[in-house]
Design brief:
By secondary structure, the protein is α/β, with parallel strands linked by helices. 41% of the residues lie in helices and 18% in strands. It has helices at residues 12-26, 34-37, 57-66, 94-126, 145-154, 172-178, 181-192, 205-214, 226-239, 256-259, 271-274, and strands at residues 41-48, 52-53, 70-73, 80-81, 85-93, 133-135, 168-170, 198-202, 218-222, 244-248, 266-268, 281-286.
């Protein structure tokens, strides 16, 4: 999937609403620092200072659009960043540039960090010859899910279900509440109708077979060790070849290759959104006629 085209997934009204909410969070009242800079027309350069994958341009744009600033990009979405590199230029009133600076940098750094981790995970998985889906999870930051799911896509991973409405997932607590695996899956199938798939979280081969027999489309083998995962997946697939198998729980970039196998269709990693380090960006103002440099200091 072309990273440049992914911005079409993001509704402009949603982008504007998110950008406005982030700016209001950072400055809900008086902005005293604006009196230091004034509103003189200014320009700033966005520098990438750590390696990784550039992701989050639409959010960066939306933030500065709210502030009547214009962004000119030098690198496309999904670019491999080799620091220190000039990524973009932003023009607008000085107080607006600085009002949007931290919000925009936070968003871009976080989104790019997730895209970078996702790209690494996909590369690691592909190095084994495995052709399944590397996916994220619903373990996202409240209020920031769209950014994080988008970052996964830019990095080449699947975002999994975006929210509770994207897939009916039956977990252990649902089974307890419903009274049995069979009853839980039956209710899930009724709720899913014709348009949604049903996935069931399982912790043993016995549960996986019961889930598939009851009508699950996907079976998540949760917290299986690799030596247990692959024979379990093979047995399940032998009896229910149309059921997809997801491996989840305890998967990291270091052990990902151990979960790749012929009978595993999806490997999901919560760490892609929970533990991916943010990339390092900076936004530096420069005077008209000056050559911008990434670490300009004045004394």
């Amino acid at each position: 999937m072309d990273p440049e085209g992914l911005q079409l997934l993001l509704p402009p009204t949603t982008l504007a609403a998110l950008a406005n909410s982030w700016l209001q969070e950072d400055c809900p009242g008086l902005n005293f620092a604006s009196l230091v800079t004034g509103s003189v027309p200014s320009q700033a350069v966005l520098w990438a200072k750590s390696p990784g994958v550039l992701a989050g341009r639409p959010f960066f744009d939306a933030i500065f659009s709210q502030l009547n600033c214009q962004v000119s990009w030098f690198l496309p979405e999904g670019s491999k960043l080799v620091p220190v590199v000039k990524v973009a230029e932003v023009k607008g009133p000085a107080h607006h540039l600085l009002l949007g600076e931290r919000v925009a940098l936070n968003t871009l750094a976080r989104c790019s960090g997730i895209a970078s981790a996702a790209a690494t995970a996909v590369e690691v998985a592909r190095s084994t010859g495995w052709t399944g889906h590397v996916a994220g999870t619903r373990k996202t930051t409240p209020g920031f899910r769209l950014v994080e799911k988008y970052g996964l896509l830019v990095g080449g991973a699947a975002c999994h279900r975006y929210d509770l409405g994207g897939l009916v997932m039956v977990k252990d607590n649902h089974v307890v509440a419903a009274g049995s695996m069979e009853r839980a899956v039956l209710k899930a199938r009724q709720a899913a109708g014709f348009s949604l798939k049903v996935e069931v979280e399982c912790s043993s081969l016995k549960e996986a077979l019961r889930a598939a027999e009851a009508g699950a489309d996907l079976v998540m083998l949760d917290n299986f060790k690799p030596e247990e995962l692959h024979p379990t997946a093979a047995t399940l697939k032998a009896k229910f070849p149309s059921v997809s198998v997801e491996a989840s729980g305890g998967v990291t970039l270091d052990n990902l290759t151990q979960f790749c196998g012929a009978h595993v269709d999806v490997i999901s990693l919560g760490m892609l959104t929970q533990a991916a380090p943010a990339l390092d960006f900076s936004l530096k103002l420069f005077a008209e006629g000056e050559t911008p440099v990434p670490h300009a200091r004045r004394f």
